[in-house]
Amino acid sequence: MLRTEVLRAAAHSELALFASVHLLLDPSPRLFAAGLTMAAVSDDLTWLLVKNNNRFLVKMNGNNSNSVQFSSEPNNLYNLNTFKHSGLANKKTVAIAPSEGLSVLLTTTKTKKRSQPAKSSHNSLLKKDFRKMAKAVVNQVATNGYRADLKSAALARLAAVHKSLRVAKAGVTKKKSKSRTPARK
């Protein structure tokens, strides 16, 4: 009887580990409907599983030694396929995206709600001028001890998003200059 209980527990833990990895790659409500929850998987193990093969990986220049790997993950500020910047492998992630109007959306991950994908993100809407937005980003990312190593990346992404939101001044058109030809005598 003891052996069957051990086998059931081992099968359940393997199934939970499979469900956790599967949820990282493709979060589907079917697994939650089956009563499975994500097992606690370390960040290093997750990175080993997803670093060479995931749906966000973009390889440039082929598969040779000169190739560069980028990532289109939603929480990757530099879009690099590295452990430090990965939005899949890290418990604490930061994302900055444009929102309606001239506002910017700052999203951070809640570490205690990581096993519940619908509740795992905290969104902050930044609507002020650029300096106040930058101060808010620094306070939420670096000053509070969340991810101080991503401070410069978050500010760079904020600057790029804010620059893309600015609209060119209307009414200013470039005048065509007349071609000057020497007068004939």
Task: Outline the secondary-structure elements.
Blueprint: H1 2-25, H2 29-33, H3 43-50, E1 57-60, E2 68-71, E3 94-98, E4 104-109, E5 121-126, H4 130-143, H5 151-165
Antiparallel strand pairs: 1-2, 3-4, 4-5
Helix pairs in contact: 4-5
Description:
The protein has helices at 2-25, 29-33, 43-50, 130-143, 151-165, and strands at residues 57-60, 68-71, 94-98, 104-109, 121-126. With 185 residues, the chain is an alpha+beta fold. It has two domains: 1-41; 43-165, 2-Layer Sandwich (Enolase-like, domain 1). The chain has a three-stranded antiparallel β-sheet with strand order 3-4-5. Helix 4 packs antiparallel against helix 5. It is extended and about 105 Å long. Belongs to the eukaryotic ribosomal protein eL28 family. It comes from Physcomitrium patens. GO terms for molecular function: structural constituent of ribosome.
- Which regions are unreliable across 5 or more consecutive residues at pLDDT < 50? none
Name of the CATH first level of the largest domain = Alpha Beta
Biggest sheet: strand arrangement: 3-4-5
CATH topology call of the largest domain: Enolase-like, domain 1
Largest sheet: 3 strands, antiparallel
Mean pLDDT: 80
Counting structural domains, the number is 2
Order of helices and strands, N to C?
HHHEEEEEHH
Instruction: Please give the share of residues in helix.
Output: 25-40%
Shape: extended
CATH structural architecture of the largest domain: 2-Layer Sandwich
Number of helices: 5
Q: What structural class do the secondary elements suggest?
A: alpha+beta
Strand content: 5-15%
Number of strands: 5
Radius of gyration: 24 Å
GO biological process, one term: translation
Organism: Physcomitrium patens (Spreading-leaved earth moss)
Pfam family, one: Ribosomal_L28e
GO molecular function: structural constituent of ribosome
